[in-house]
């Protein structure tokens, strides 16, 4: 945007940081059903026009917010070895728990699709690659099922379901997910 | 409500049926984010006041709508024998599919909690009873994990996730759920 180019790099960065941190504040503390540019601008103490100086459209704005949500949640990287998948549940769910308000906001707003398309897709691809390398002797369909069922237990949606619909304590939610992941791995490893 | 008592039983029934069928129309065809008495009254061609003659409050109204949603979705009864649990996935998911718009409305509105508290709780209790009878030799915690992981795959949320987030065809979603249920049953049946 041409008007943004007249600002110094330093000022641009500071304003963008303020916009994104204001969005995080809203998502973490207000449980907003829809994240509007208006609400973020108000939270940041600036005009909507200023926000749109940095983001050409509402879509571009939401993309930036989703990327910031991913960075803030900061889930641990998917394991590189298949045997580490069940043990990955605990640090993952612990992180969801630490960032509970933000994760729930991401799950319940239009940010969900955007967040899924970034970090979740990477995690899912990593799981599928591990399964394919681990069980080349099994049919494609069986590997697809195992990978999907493992991915499902590594999703924030699943953490949320066990914690809030089943109302399980975190340790029990983790035990459920570890069990499901372990069973899927045992099954796909069979001859 | 005293004013309702002045109506004949026949008229009461017809009006209530109209209110509830108008609510179903809205949920099935309009993808409403929130089901309001105003929108239902408009759809039914009556005043909000008339709706409130039958339902003392918005809560009572939503309870009635949730009961009607459950009746319309009409999921098959949970199986009476543990060996029938994996095979229960297909008729259940097929029914979710047939009533897809209504199920998705139920999942994404404030009806969710109400629907879960009726039909879902019954289904869940049935699963837990089957597991307890099947594996009395296993620790309570292990039975709780197995029952939860099976319940999770019998939830409309899971059907929805596999169909719309994984974008799996129905048959593949069913295969995933059947596999997960079968593995949980095998595990809990071990000595």
UniProtKB/TrEMBL annotation, chains A, B:
| InterPro entries xrefs | Homeodomain-like_sf (IPR009057), HTH-type_TetR-like_transc_reg (IPR050109), HTH_TetR (IPR001647)
Please give the Pfam families that the UniProt record associates with this protein. TetR_N (PF00440)
Q: Which residues bind DNA?
A: 36-55
* Superkingdom, natural source: Bacteria
| One Gene Ontology molecular-function label | transcription cis-regulatory region binding
Q: What is the annotated signal peptide range for this record?
A: none
Q: What is the name of this protein?
A: HTH tetR-type domain-containing protein
Q: What is the lineage of its organism?
A: Bacteria, Pseudomonadati, Pseudomonadota, Alphaproteobacteria, Rhodospirillales
